[in-house]
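User: I'm preparing a small set of examples for a lab meeting where we compare how different chains pack in three dimensions. I only have the primary sequence for this one, and I'd like the structure in token form so I can line it up with the others. Please keep the answer compact; I'll paste it straight into my notes.
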Amino acid sequence: MDTNGHSDLIWGMPTAHLFQGKFDILSVSLNNATPETYHATVRSRYGVQAYQAMLDFARDAVQYVPTVIMTVVDTLPTAELDACREICQSLGATFRVRKYSTEW
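Assistant: Understood. Below is the structure token output for the 104-residue chain.
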């Protein structure tokens, strides 16, 4: 399943446990390395707090889903890619850089 990781904000409660036994792989869109750059990219209605909520969701999800992948696009600067890789490692998630495409 692919998610933005905002379900805790949407439902107002922890939700990662609900994925246990339902999915083998969960992909969370990390997108950026800081709350400010994340908000500039996703423009969540939850503001900059959406970034921490997404990280918290991913941290929780690794307890319930066998494989949690966090993704970014290949257009980020190398320093930001490195920071995102470190974030994923600290959460216990797998880091994946996906190719940016405007094609559907």
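A couple of notes for your slides: The first strand starts at residue 2 and ends at 3. The CA atoms of residues 35 and 51 lie 5 Å apart.

User: Perfect, thanks.
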